[in-house]
Write the structure tokens for this entry.
Amino acid sequence: MKLTRFHICLLTVGASSVATQLVVVREFMSTFGGNELVVGVALGIWLLAGGLGSKIAARLARSTGSPLRRLFAGHLILAVLPLMQIAAIRALPLLWVRGQMLGLSSSTVFGAIIILPYVLVSGAMIPLAVRLDQSGGAAARAYVTDTVGDILGGLVFSLILVHFFSHWQTLAFFGLLHALAAAILGRKDRPLLSYALSACIAAMIAFSFLLAPASRSWRLPGQEIITWKNSPFCQLAITRTGDQYNVWQDGILLFSSDEASVEALVHPAMCQVPEGARVLVVAGGVFGSIEEIAKHAPSGIDYVELDKSILNLDDRLFHSLKRPEVSAHVGDGRLFIKESKRKYDVIIIDLPDPENAQINRFYTQDFFKEAKRSLHPEGVLYFSLAGADNYLEKGGLALNRTVFQALEKTFAHVLVFPGITHYFMASESPLDPDVSGVLAARNISTRQLVDIDLATMTDPFRMDNLADLLNEEAVKPNRDLSPWAFGHMLDLWMTKSKSSQWLFWGVTMLVLSLAVMAGFKDRIRFAIMTSGFAGMGVELALVLLFQVVYGYAYTILCLFITLFMVGAAAGGYLSLKGEKNAVKRYKRGETGLMAAALLALACGPVCVHAAHGWVLSLMGYVVLPLLIAASGWFVGGQFAAASRICSGHEAQITANLYWADLAGAAGGALVMGLVLLPKLGIQGVLVCLLLVKLLSWLVNRNFSSGMTYS
């Protein structure tokens, strides 16, 4: 295939837009504390703006002006806008009071201001590029070429750039690609001017590296940055304020030197078992818990950390991994427990509250059963959740209740220690709240636990009162396929950040309304809109099912998303043939997505209840990847087939279909991920999108080759 300016333009736009989206979302997570609702809003804005840019550009594409000049200008703009975006995101903390928890309104407004310019331009480039290909089927070829660019950008970022380059360097790399594409597009029109402007943009990108170090300090004002790392999972930073060192992950404070609160996360559990215990710590061990566990003379400590970068942050702060009794393991803690043959006396989960679907996996009845199998009969499982000293408001109480119910249905004995943080302890053997007596007998001194914390944690009246509250109302236990705790965490964040429920539902209804408007014109656009909605929903459900089996393996999940795009590109390519075949492939997209949803429904219980061994491998590496590729195949094949069925100007067809597809995908990302998933669970999400596609199938069941739309 000859690489024309049409292909160069769309491949560059596709590759850079995916990488820029990943970087911008990660930067938003670091600035807004990693909240999944914020990420969902950012993705919704991104998808809607991309479709809107395509729709607006359709008018420009039909005018008599040269598309080359507009595409040339677009490439130059896209070369520099991403660097301006991350500079603006990092500067946001300078606008509010330090330590202030930002709400939904702030993230929505700032997200729209920062995201819209780039995405409107990148979305507009696709219909404009279609004018470079005057032959029939240009809209379908544009879809396939853009999707191939998406695949290349996703793979390069996920497999190379995220591991070895900073976010600034990554965006600079794609900025230089845009400058090169602009020079290629402009060389036949005004070559000297084109080369000069492209060279100026490249020079601006090079000089922008002088701004990168300063932009980091904007995110953490008033602190000296000692270390700054981009890992495949997050952004990590070590800062210093006076004599105190602080460790930050995606803008959330993980640890401060000389912090005594870690004592409460260790000693109550360790006091339930004799000295010489075998202990498993999931996450957080380097931040002090291993040092506290070592005071009980354990026979061995297995420490599992998902992110290898945390283990290598700074030797000046973390010495615990050098202890002879410590064995560090890199990987998902839940998968480690599921596959481990070793039995433990204590398992300590040192993770944040279940603020997203990934972390929720460690607070479910399904996980508690797996942990129970890895404990001796007298063994103890121990973890913490957000609490309150005196009054536990509605969202926090609901969060604690659903996790407590999951724990009580698994273990014979459960103790909950009250306080600002609630500490949950569970075992098959009786538990003793007398922690101070055991510490004294073992001659273990503490800085804060005995003299301050235990007075609240072990107060009989407070413990009984909290137990009564947790048992007062019967609730559904938190499960893998029904992540109720995740939903309650979103409600809790909305309350604490004083976010408006009206704003959240207003944004949700706006996105749904735009999606309906995008698909309202005719049955073809309705099918494409619902396929965008369902495709996003199936992709989300399958990724979450993979997490249930294998945990959050970042590279694998990125490959999953890439598999969806590979399927879409392949399905689109095979739909580039005649109109008769196009109608068949168009209608096959309806039934194919319904079949994928039904198969995903059947896979859910298998993934949750599968023991380790060949079933896990079959589900994780064969069934789910094939399903996600097949879903992409049906979505891409239907899109390309629809573009062949429609009549009219190719740029207008492209704009209409992209607008319908991206508006539907935006609705799927926001509604499925942040409304239906916390309320209905994974199976509920799949049932809902199955109903959506069933409606679309009913609308299109009588579609024939004689029906064309402009």
